[in-house]
Amino acid sequence: MPTLSSSWSTSSSNARAAYTVHASAVSKVLCHRLINGNEQYLVRWKTEPEFPVPPRAICSWHSVPELQRSLHHVQTYIESLSRTATTSTVNGAVNPINRKRKAPGADPLYSRDSSLGANGSAYWSREASVISVGSSSETSNETPTPATEVYNGVLQRKSGKITVKKSRDPAVVTLNVTKLPTPQMLEVAATAPTSVAERTIREAFDHSLSKLKHVRWENGVDGSAPSLNFTFVDGFILRDGVYRPDASANVGCTKPCKPNMGQNVGCEYPRMCTCLEYAAVDEPKLERSDPERYALYIHQKETEGYFVDTEGLPKRFPYQKPNADPRVPSVLLNFYLESRYPIYECNEYCACGPVCKSRVVQKGRRVPLVIFKTRNRGWGVYCDEELAKGEFIDTYIGEVITNEEADRREAKAGKAKASYLYNLDKFDGDDGITADTCFVVDGQYMGGPTRFMNHSCEPNCRQYTVSQNKHDLRIYDLAFFAIQDIPAGTELTFDYMDKDELEEEEVVQARHAAALGPDNMDKKPCNCGSRKCRGFLWV
Ligand SMILES: C[S@@+](CC[C@H](N)C(=O)[O-])C[C@H]1O[C@@H](n2cnc3c(N)ncnc32)[C@H](O)[C@@H]1O
């Protein structure tokens, strides 16, 4: 029996964890109540076809200790209580989230539910701690009036209803499980506290965050914690159909190459160093030094894109370290900040070693980040320290999936899903890569702290393509850098649509067009609060 760690207890109102409810067995938490000071949650169990092993009951009440392994279902339920009151609207209409996909978005909605089918086979429960039925009516399918609570008997499910067999209790009724929670249950839930569950959820998130260095979380707004249905990982998790070129195909410096060896030696002088063969050409320098070669290069660039042979041409090194103090970070140079040209870092085949100045993103996050609750954009992220323009913050990681799988997940989970899908489409058009064949990073259930970064139409960060394997055009780092000096404590944001900033007049036009557009109801209002706000996410 995969769902229970021990047999059913005979009393669901026992605060001791008589058994553990495993998340995989839970379909949804439906309601809550307070019984003898014990906060309890009504769990609806998964049933066929999605869960072939028959659970022992269809619905049952559980105290918080019993729900330790399925807390995210309780969290989703508690969030749904407040969401009902605060769902955002435009012109009075509820706004679902647009499906455009590029960058993160959307809170997980209360949608991963499987309702009980009407034609499922009969399942049997053992005694007790099964759905509380309150009624003395023998036959009612509808809403029994509150009376006797938990009943001890054997339940059978037929045609979407639970019927009771062999009970000696005259209060036993037939209960339509598709109609739970009953109005009476909802009435009780309206005033019942959720504080024990909320505290337990906060502790569980503390625990999941404790394995990360330099990341903490805080909530000055309410008692909630970020989603527990999310696992912090430290890199890409490659899923079915996703592949990388063999690492041995990668190349590094072919000549002896040491950083700081002096004039014209080392990776900072990429005309000499082959590891940065694909780095951006220093065009002004080339034009000055070799106008003919420059003209040929420009022509090739226009016709061949990223695949021009640039060996021997002067290149632009991506980073600059302002001084020798190890605490002072390298920053991304203006050319890359502005041009969005892919950034190539040295790799394990380069002779330069770990102190090479081109190794920034690959060393990972070094700035302390805080996940915090905003008032109108869910969770956000800020940095505890001042950031310099061009400073690396962190990468966007998660599961790497095929485009087909991304479509499948999007179709299953609905519009909110698009927000967490990030296309690896920088090289769309090169090497047979198309929008349909590029890989996609899904950060919804696995990722790092940047998964909580919000959108702004006037952002202070931007995402850049960073690669250590120049032959891998499908999987590269999505790296966030500060695009201006950012004081400590300022929310870090990026533009989900990755647009160049608009002039104010254009902003007004864009906002107007978006508000009037045919899919207006499909848009999520943007609360970035900037002067240049376009009015909606995804426009
Ligand atoms: C990747 S998530 C960012 C983290 C998110 N705030 C959370 O709590 O998990 C993207 C979602 O955050 C919210 N969001 C981000 N930026 C926003 C903005 N400028 N205005 C309103 N909501 C925003 C939207 O719900 C969006 O779908």
UniProtKB/TrEMBL annotation:
Residues 367-497 form the SET domain. Residues 522-538 form the Post-SET domain. It comes from the Eukaryota. GO terms for biological process: methylation. It is found in: Chromosome. GO terms for molecular function: histone methyltransferase activity; zinc ion binding. Keywords: Chromosome, Metal-binding, Methyltransferase, S-adenosyl-L-methionine, Transferase, Zinc. SMART domains: PostSET, SET. Pfam families: Pre-SET, SET. InterPro entries: Chromo-like_dom_sf (IPR016197), H3K9_Histone-Lys_N-MTase (IPR050973), Post-SET_dom (IPR003616), Pre-SET_dom (IPR007728), SET_dom (IPR001214), SET_dom_sf (IPR046341). One of its GO terms (cellular component) is chromosome. Its main location: nucleus. The keyword Zinc-finger does not apply. CDD domains: CD_CSD (cd00024). Residues 249-364 form the Pre-SET domain. Component of the NuA4 histone acetyltransferase complex. This is SET domain-containing protein.
